[in-house]
Amino acid sequence: MSTRELHWLAGEEDVSCRIDESQGAGSFHMSGTTLPFRILDSSHIEISGKRHRFYVVHKHDLSTVWLDGRTYFLKRAKRAIDPPASEGVRGGDVRALMPGKLLRLAVNVGDQVTEKQTVATMESMKMESSLVAPRTGRVSEIRFKPGDVLEMGAVVMVVE
Amino acid sequence: VFEPPSGPGIRLDSGVTRGSIVSYHFDPLLGKLIVWAPTRAAAIDRMKRALDDFVLLGVRNNIDFLRRVISTGDFMNGKLDTGFLDRHRELFETGNTIPAEVFLVASVGGAPSSNQATFNDVWNSGPWRNA
User: Fold this and answer.
1) Which of A1, A16, A72, A75 to mutate to test the interface with B (most CBs of B within 10 A)?
2) Is the model more confident about B124 or about B72?
3) Which residues are paired to A121 by β-bridges?
4) Which of A46, A47, A78, A152 has its Cβ near the most Cβ atoms within 10 Å?
5) Smallest Cα–Cα separation from A151: which of A85, A92, A70, A95?
């Protein structure tokens, strides 16, 4: 029998759970609830006597769980460390709204910009879209150049 | 992971398979799920089951959203027009409660274990690592 403690982030919520397991069967404890489980095969599990179909994909600290037709996204929290509150979307970040290619920059580092001013143009799915300044300020940093391929959410530049 | 539904009256037109890369070059349309049944109600039922059986992980997709759309009364009654989504803003709410079973499955399928090979973790298990 082995015992493991795991911490997950689900949206804003911090969830701790404990698993006692041996040979693919055991019990799961979370916020006062205990669920007995037994792994049946690679994609089926019995939980509290009920059979479920499941798939799990882990990439970095993100886990995607497919359970009985619904998809859920969880984040693995670092053990015993509270997630840094400041991490995530900062107010002055200009981010790519879709994956795509950066076509043009309309500003340089040091330029003064006003809120909603177009600061860059990108292309995805054969369509152009404009990235706008999230606030009035000065461009403090530009992280990509025209031609670069951006992932969704990539920070293109920072306005301070 | 790509395990599309199949069965009588269910058809999928799709150009992707497990391992496909979805790039920004084309519309991010992964496939068209088509069902047939003698009546509209039966077809919607069959579509709900087909969506429930559709396993697609690795890319964000709208399967859950489509299930919510076809579950509305207006969709059942064929009251559809271009204003449909504007009248049904609630469809964009995903509902935040995650059942404990989900955490269980994520935890069991995630951490190192004596019989890891039985878990469906495409990143960490499989013969290419264990060999």
Assistant:
1) A72
2) B72
3) A104, A130
4) A47
5) A95
Task: Using alpha carbons only, give the angle B32, B38, B43 rounded to the nearest 5 degrees.
Answer: 40
- Report the sign of the C-alpha dihedral through residues A98, A102, A103, A108, in that order: positive
DSSP summary character for residue B23: -
For A37-76, how does the pLDDT look when each residue is reduced to its tens digit (9 = 90+)?
998 888 899 999 999 999 988 887 788 899 998 888 888 8
Taking the alpha carbons of B26, B49, A56, B121 in that order, is the dihedral positive or negative? negative
Query: Would you state the pLDDT for residue A130?
Result: 87
**pLDDT of residue A90 exceeding 80:** no
pLDDT at position B96 is 67
Mean pLDDT along residues B107-111: 66
Which residues have CB under 8 Å from B106's CB, separation 6+?
A8, A56, A63, A65, A72, A74
Q: Six-digit token pair at B27?
A: 């519309």
The two three-digit tokens of residue A149, written as one number: 């391929």
Residues 61 through 90 of chain A touching chain B, CB cutoff 8 Å: 63-72, 74, 76
Residue A130's φ and ψ, nearest 5 degrees, are -100, 140
Enclosing H/E stretch for A71: strand A70-76
Q: Which residues, 6 or more positions from A126, have their beta carbon under 8 angstroms from its beta carbon?
A: B25, B26
Query: Which one, of B106, B88, B126, B52, lies nearest residue A75 by Cα?
Result: B106
- Chain B interface test: which of A17, A45, A56 (most B C-beta within 10 Å): A56
